[in-house]
Amino acid sequence: MASVYSLILLIAGLAISGCGSSNGGAITAVPGGALVRTPSSSPRYCKTLTSAKAVVGLGAAMNELAGSPHSAPPEATIRGAVTALRSAAAQAPSQERARLIAAADAVRGLGVHGLAQAGHVETALRDAGHLLQRSCAFPVG
Amino acid sequence: MRLPRRLAQLGVATCLALSAMVIDAQAGLDPRLCHASGARVKISSTLAVDACFSGPALTLSNSTMLALEASRNGDVGDPTRHETDIGLGADATRLFSHDPGIFLPGDKLIYPIGSGAGTVSIGNSNKDSFYALASTLAAVFPGKPAAVLNAFTSLVAELDGDYAEYQRCIVHKNWLEQVGCDALRDRNVAFAIGRALVGGAAKDLTAAALTDTTYIKWAHARVVDAQALKKGKETVYIAAAQRTPPATSPPPTTPSTTTAPAPPTTTTPSTTTSTGGQPLAIGSSFASECVVAWPTAPVVTSNSIQMTMSCDAVPENEYLFTDVVYGDPNLHVTPNNSRAYVVGKIVDVATSGYGYKELVVQASSVKLQ
Prior knowledge:
The complex is a heterodimer of chains A (about 140) and B (about 375).
Chain A: H1 2-17, H2 44-50, H3 53-56, H4 58-67, H5 75-91, H6 94-113, H7 118-136
Chain B: H1 5-24, E1 28-29, E2 50-53, E3 57-61, E4 68-76, E5 80-82, H2 88-97, E6 102-103, E7 108-124, H3 128-138, H4 145-170, H5 175-195, H6 202-210, H7 212-231, E8 234-238, E9 285-292, E10 299-300, E11 305-311, E12 321-326, E13 339-351, E14 357-368
Parallel strand pairs in B: 1-2, 12-14
Antiparallel strand pairs in B: 2-3, 3-7, 4-6, 4-7, 5-7, 7-8, 9-11, 9-13, 10-11, 11-12, 13-14
């Protein structure tokens, strides 16, 4: 029975962490498993977001921050995410632009205030992601 | 993190399939646990745990990976508990459950069984996710287990709640929304560990709490809990003892209800005696009030009826039953009309495979009362 359980964990672990080559650029950002991908017909700002490693890597950066709350936040990732969100905002229609700018500001606050800002980050990314879903058609986890 | 989609699908499908295997794993009767007796209890082969009934006791052993709970009813005493997992994670789960029937993997419960009927039920405790998390984090939690048990239990309870909130957050969301959920989870986990005052171990503990593997273990345990809930409880039914078994394994505190036998009708000496002094040797006369020991139904042949009876003149610690053979297949014996005065001759002594003895009487008269 123990070996069966180990096998479950191994396979599930592989599925989550991902190993080997990617398949058509399919990437996950968090254990939730939603793929970071967008159809080829979707607007350019959608692809700007999915190709931004810093935005995808925000989850890992926040894990790091949680482990060392008194250390300096992982600046490069946070700065890169803010830049990518602003860049996508510049390409997006007004409504989407506003949400993406709000998300960029919330992530910037993460760099200044650490995880105390997590509530704002969650709200801003949820609002932006929800609105962008109409045009970007991201896979849902 | 790169995830080949097919691998993800395979992983999820395999995980669910194997989860079902964990749930459906069958144990049932395990004669290594005790000196098994088939009387009174039938242990189903589909029972999730190992079980063995010896007469005075029912032994259950949790050989699954699940945190179960056991409950008792009827003439079943409080169990003696033997725990093999004595780690901090298991102790915290026991403390958190507030349930004396918590039945963790490796635990063995021995229930004393009385002479009456009773049941022992096994169900899921819904503590699998807590147990999975506690077992994972116990290795990196600082301090001696006895000293930190309360703090550790509180921390795991809080993290269990944080993970549940995270799971609700990520469902049916796209990746951008899920990254937002990550932010909340990380904050909640960091704050919980900060409150637990674990000092220098906070970094290791947080890292362990936030690895994908820990979340997967936790999420898998939730799946197991959900599936087990669908399955419901399994119950071992213990029938009431019809008579007190031989002196080698008497059920506790069963008063004898044997009444004085009918006056002896013979003075033939014998080395075997009854409660009233009536000799019970083969060839001796027999006269006693008897009652059919339902649910052992009478057997009727073309020219006789054979009844398994309990007779006042027969000491139960010598002969568990009296097998009465009477040459009237039309004798109208029913559960409501099963008491009779039996007169006849002792013709044999039968011994069952379980070691019990039965007196065999060829009756010349059976008067129903």
